[in-house]
Amino acid sequence: MSPDSDTLALYAVSALNSRGRQHAVEPSHDRNPFQRDYTRILHSRAFRRLQGKTQVFSAADGDMFRTRMSHSLEVEQLSRSIARQLRLNEDLCAALAIGHDIGHPPFGHMGQDVINGMMKGHGGFEHNHQALRLVDELEGCYPEHLGLNLLFETREGLLKHCSPARARTLGDVAVRHLDGTSPPLEVQVVDHADAIAYLHADLEDAMVRGILSAQDVRDAPGFMAAWERTASKMRYRDLKLPENEDLSDQAHPETQRMGRATLQAVIREMMSTAMNDLIVCSRAALVEAQPASLDEVRQSPPLIGFSPEHLARHKALRKFSRERIYDHPEVSRVRQVQAQALRELFCAFVQDPSQMSGRRWVSDGTSKADVHRAVADHIAGMTDHFALAEHARLRLEAPHLLAPLAVMETPPVRRSRAMP
Ligand code: MG
Question: What's the rounded Cα separation, in Å, for the pair 209 and 66?
Fold first, then answer.
């Protein structure tokens, strides 16, 4: 069973133009190859652990915020919607969407920045590359091979970013990062769906967390225009935008419910506008370029994108989120505490790899670089809770491993410009 060629466009990835898997598999009677990749990722340990990994706000802040897993499922929903509208391979989009963040360590982008700093001189660390390592090597539930044996196009799509130096070591799957060709449209779709999902979700979570007040949310680029469209709808004509109302957990329940629900209705409108703009503009770009094959897509400039007007608003919203949410003093303070714990954990495991729980450490013939990579893999797989629990365990059982932190090279963490 394969995606129906009657419904897929010529420029979509399909079973006919896929470069296949490294290891041949018997055909499935009930799933096409792309649905198979989706379920392989869905059933992986790496995907399960996303439920305990920070998106922006830590689980310690409460249990109502997005995690990496809920974010990934929201990206899946948006990606599927776009793919259906453009006659792209919805199953490949879904697989890429639920897999796009599986390489993330605990504690959001800060976790990546800490591990990358600790891996300086040992090959560095980047979550897209880690996602590829997970599906190619580290997931171990198939007796006949390492990894998940995913399709070339799924692996290629998971490697969203890659430095030229690393790309030269990865072969065909990274060649687009060297020759400047475009990825399949399905990869471009998921990339945009990711940004649409997190930019709007983060506004909502920041509002619920109290990082943004009802007044602050009004400053978000596109918010007031979306409010006017929302209020013009028949069902919302009696709606009033909250001004100075207290929407915190201490507020009167009805005031809080109505205030938050009104702001959420406007944020939904913002997201809907972004989705419509992306679909309309991408469809127009495809009509104009008329790619007749996947190869022609690869030779074309990116064809999935916003209108110039919406792109400007999108960039302004990213800037707003960086300044008002991700760099908010409260978010930064929590990040610094978590960064210190992660650095100490990394140093402790490098000094004594046998402390890595759940992993039998075989030290014979292991080079220093291999030890660092093993520690990076181990910590990157942790949920936020497990990382903190391991740190607390070492404080009790092996405090000497945490103490000499100052004598090891511990680069300061600067938050990368990468977004959630
Ligand atoms: Mg994401």
Answer: 11
Tens digit of each residue's pLDDT (9 = 90 or more) over 185-205: 999 999 999 999 999 999 999
How far away, in angstroms, is 243 Cα from ligand 1 center?
31
Query: Sign of the CA dihedral 368, 336, 53, 90?
Result: negative
Residue 135 CA to its chain's centroid (Å): 15
Amino acid letter at 115? Answer: I
Locus of tokens 């400053």? 219
**How far does Cα 272 stand from its chain's mean position?**
20
Residue 356 has which token pair? 């890595």
Backbone angles phi, psi at 252, to 5 degrees: -60, 135
State the distance from the centre of ligand 1 to the C-alpha of 313, rounded, in angstroms: 19
Distance from Cα 400 to the centre of ligand 1, integer Å? 37
Name the nearest CA neighbour of 68 among 123, 131, 15, 5.
131
- What size, in residues, is the chain? 420
Task: Give distance in angstroms: CA of 198 to centre of ligand 1.
Answer: 7
Query: Long-range contacts for 232-240 (Cβ within 8 Å, ≥24 apart)?
Result: 236/265, 239/265
Q: How far is the CA of 409 from the centre of ligand 1 (A)?
A: 30
- Whether pTM > 0.90 for this model: the answer is yes
- Per-residue pLDDT reduced to its tens digit, 143-161: 999 999 999 999 999 999 9
